[in-house]
Design goal:
Blueprint (H helix, E strand, L loop, with lengths): L5 E2 L2 E2 L7 E5 L3 H6 L9 E5 L4 E3 L3 E2 L8 E3 L1 E7 L8 H7 E8 L2 E2 H9 L5 H4 L5 E3 L3 E2 L10 E6 L2 E7 L7 H11 L7 E3 L7 E2 L5 E6 L5 E5 L1
Parallel strand pairs: 3-15, 5-11, 6-18
Antiparallel strand pairs: 1-2, 3-4, 7-10, 7-16, 8-9, 8-15, 9-12, 13-14, 13-17, 17-18
Bound molecules: zinc ion (ZN).
Length: 219
Amino acid sequence: MSYQHILDGKKLDLPVGKVVCVGRNYAEHAKELNNPVPTSPILFMKPSTAVVALEPGFAIPQNQGECHHELEMSVLIGQPLKSADEAGAKKAVLGFGIGLDLTLRDLQNKLKEKSHPWEVAKAFDGANPLSGFVSTDRIADPEHTEIELTVNGAVRQKGNTSDMITPVYKLLAFMSRHFTLLPGDVVMTGTPAGVAALQVGDQLVLRLGDLPALSTVVR
Ligand code: ZN
């Protein structure tokens, strides 16, 4: 499936770049996986080949153990960002959306036990289903925005971006000191508690703030 960035319903002439992610950015999620709450953001990346459209459906890997949903607010970068401060980070954002940081949890746990990198558990093809984005003026305050995921009608993940350990713009600034962010790159901002395994056929509804809910299915 091909994916192209969409902003306010229109296809954007922007490359789909890398995705920069943060681990354990909500304390309750760190606790549910028995991980310590980090003192500085834990960064990792997904390549452009991980990005697929969230709607109308997406696939999960088979026969590789549990594939967990991690519901996260996503940020689309519109201007190059390097060693930026928070004000610079704010200016570089083109839009906000929602996405899933799919994680092969059994595989990740095995890798963590061996102190090996996580990539194959996090960066596989299709590991980052993304919604379209909305322009920044449609999210009143991205640092105080509710996100919610229901699976087959039951609420699985519910959080507020105000609970992030490193808030959005501070996080972008931090990331930009390690990796230059380019137009078309995406930042995933971490997941609240409630991660769990997805099954083929699951019906998902994702909400970001007051925006219309998005529906999708696991294929
Ligand atoms: Zn995540």
